[in-house]
Amino acid sequence: MLRKTIVTLVCVGCCVAASAQTGLESLKEKYEANKRDIEVVKEYVEALEKAKKGKEAERVTKEYMSRCPVLQVEDKDTYLLLNKYVFADPYSNVFEYGIYAMKKMKWDREDIPAGEDKATRLERLFRSLGSGVSGDNEIDKRYEVLMMLSRNLNKEIDKQCEPYLQDKQYVLPLYDSLKLERLTYLVNKGQLLGQDAMRLKLAVNKALHAGNYARVVRDLEVAANLNMTDLRDNYIVAILTVLSESTLDKELINNILSFVLRLRDREETAGGSTNYYNLLGRLYALVGDKDNADKYKKMGDAIEAERMERYKDLFEATGSN
């Protein structure tokens, strides 16, 4: 009986898969004949996404956009189609226009389809989670696009501005004035999520490059006092660590030391996990306080050793990739 049931289920599954494949092929033929019709393209992309063929969906979307003027973005269906696949490159013209069009476009709430029961609605919502062209209503769709634009812009700003570890030392990315100018322009163009933190990182990077170290510290202090939630404490530690390797006057070193001690106290009160101690050890060494320099360096090294031990398997796995 069990064997018969399994065979039946397999047969049903094969029939469903075959039916889906036939439907996809039919949509492909329709698409090949009407590549400029947004409704046809949208229907085909949705079907590809449902069939877990994201690469093909991306190719079709980009192919459609390559044949359209950037003004086509003002069409709402086109805009939502592009969300997942085209608003990925902050240096493209369509990305900039995406920010502009999002502000300009009118977004209306949609009524729930008549007669839609709870199960059907849930299925539609789950399906929309993996899709760049659907959503519960237009307000949700607008927010999805806003998140996509903001996330991709922030990701590129982090790539250009955030220090990274190399041989156990923080180093800054190569300074590319043209890219940074473009990113600054985009951040100032629209109302994006995490906009203040993005602006700050760009300003700090510019000040570091110009050697205006007092401005760097001042900007970071303002951000910390405002408790800017989009700014991670690890970023502040990385920037100040890079700064501590530069030639600084004694007054600025003392200002940085005082600032980091305040951050450390706040972190301990909040029960956070940011390691300020290696930076404190470095700063105390710069002011000639050897006892505190050794003390905090040992504390920082102990925290890093414990962290490495705790996440050893993860570090080894990511390091081997």
TrEMBL record:
<protein>
    <recommendedName>
        <fullName>Tetratricopeptide repeat protein</fullName>
    </recommendedName>
</protein>
<feature type="coiled-coil region">
    <location>
        <begin position="24"/>
        <end position="58"/>
    </location>
</feature>
<feature type="signal peptide">
    <location>
        <begin position="1"/>
        <end position="20"/>
    </location>
</feature>
<keyword id="KW-0175">Coiled coil</keyword>
<keyword id="KW-0732">Signal</keyword>
